[in-house]
Design goal:
The chain is α+β, with helices and mostly antiparallel strands. α2 packs antiparallel against α3 and α7 crosses α10.
């Protein structure tokens, strides 16, 4: 499988200028591609192909006075901007006809020079490299200092240079993982755990462990409030307002990074300890439209489950998602009696049938584990077809006396 490894970049002043120029050229080519498509649509003509756009918007544009500065950046950056526009239209049309799952994707829009996030991509034919001293050598930009927090497991196939809203630069490498190395990275385990995600506690496990919710956003609200208030008092368009905006963006970036690190550490720990993990398929999008929206966003359930999902695939573990309508909080995990719905303020309850006293979240985690075990058992219980003779009209069976084999 393919993964992204991101590392912090520290370009100098000249390199920042070159990167800003590359960001701008890529943005112009992307916008020109979108404009060419829109003009063709309004005229009722066929959409121009990628080859036609490349000749018109890059090769010929470099020879004009208005676009001659496109030749000052790497041609691969401009070609990848066209590829991004093509991918945006493919995703849009696939979303229209239902071929693309998930949220409906809108039509590509023009990029603005005021966008706080900018990116460019270099593929292998751009001849970028990692120097012996650990710097990232980019064409027409130079050797940029990189903060290597870990080693790349395999040689990367491409690198994307990103500038985020907080003014930080990152290098994002795409690598193909080694399946054999991934198979031996995690120890063998026969354990299975059920997880009940919540807001009072981030997660309660079926084995009784409770993972407290760090509440990164709630803890940083005072600092964010002050930074946002200072920003609102600055005059629009002034340098002081830009400085205040960077302070707000950096404060939000600290919250996001802390939450991301917490999710990574917890998901890796659960994947390492258990062969199978069961979670509820929560309706996160619906919950973000309620009064609990800020707390739900602060917890980041969807990001955590997504990490569990791709790590389970990578390391050969099993992730089972239980339906959101499964009555995990209404069913006694000891005897299986369904006691009906309970308000959120009820954290403990006693089963009327067997008298067992349950913690609401721990009982739900046990039921999640039980439901996942039944689902896995049902999948394994499918009867395999018996041994049958190969049919005469099968390819390769003519003129032979077939022996019994598995169909």
């Amino acid at each position: 499988m393919q993964l992204r490894y991101s590392f912090r970049l520290y370009p100098n002043t000249a390199q920042r200028t070159a990167l800003a120029q590359a960001f701008g050229c890529a943005r112009v080519v992307f916008n020109d591609a979108v404009r060419a498509r829109e003009d063709a649509r309004k005229a009722g003509a066929a959409f121009p192909t990628a080859g036609e756009l490349s000749k018109k918007l890059i090769t010929r544009a470099k020879q004009t006075v208005e676009r001659c500065w496109l030749g000052e950046v790497s041609a691969v950056v401009l070609q990848q901007a066209l590829r991004d526009a093509e991918a945006a239209y493919r995703n849009f049309f696939a979303s229209l006809n239902g071929a693309r799952k998930g949220t409906r994707v809108g039509a590509p829009r023009f990029k603005s020079r005021k966008d706080h996030r900018q990116s460019i991509r270099f593929t292998a034919n751009a001849r970028w490299s990692i120097t012996g001293s650990g710097q990232l050598n980019l064409p027409k930009i130079g050797a940029v200092k990189v903060k290597w927090s870990r080693t790349l497991p395999t040689p990367p196939s491409s690198v994307t240079v990103i500038k985020d809203a907080a003014g930080r630069y990152f290098a994002s490498f795409v690598i193909d993982t080694d399946p054999d190395a991934d198979a031996t990275a995690m120890p063998d385990s026969d354990q299975m755990v059920g997880i009940d995600l919540g807001l009072t506690h981030f997660a309660v496990l079926s084995d009784g462990r409770v993972i407290d919710s760090p509440r990164f956003l709630r803890r940083a609200e005072k600092k964010l409030k002050k930074a946002q208030r200072d920003l609102s008092r600055k005059q629009k368009g002034s340098k002081n307002r830009e400085k205040a905006r960077l302070k707000v963006a950096r404060a939000h970036a600290q919250v996001t990074d802390a939450r991301h690190e917490f999710h990574h550490q917890l998901s890796t720990k659960l994947i390492r300890e258990n062969q199978a993990i069961a979670v509820e398929d929560l309706a996160v999008r619906a919950l973000t439209r309620t009064r609990l929206a800020k707390s739900v966003h602060d917890a980041g359930w969807a990001q955590f489950v997504a990490m569990l999902e791709y790590k389970a695939v990578r390391y050969g573990r099993t992730l089972v998602k239980i339906g959101r309508f499964e009555p995990t909080s209404q069913t006694c995990s000891a005897c299986g009696v369904k006691d009906g719905p309970k308000p959120l303020h009820i954290r403990e309850w006693t089963c009327p049938a067997c008298g067992t006293v349950h913690d609401r979240d721990h009982n739900a985690a046990k039921n999640v584990k039980t439901a996942a075990g039944l689902a896995v058992a049902a999948c394994r219980a499918q009867v395999r077809p018996g041994l049958v003779l190969a049919q005469r009209d099968e390819a390769g069976s003519h003129g032979f006396s077939p022996e019994p084999r598995a169909a």
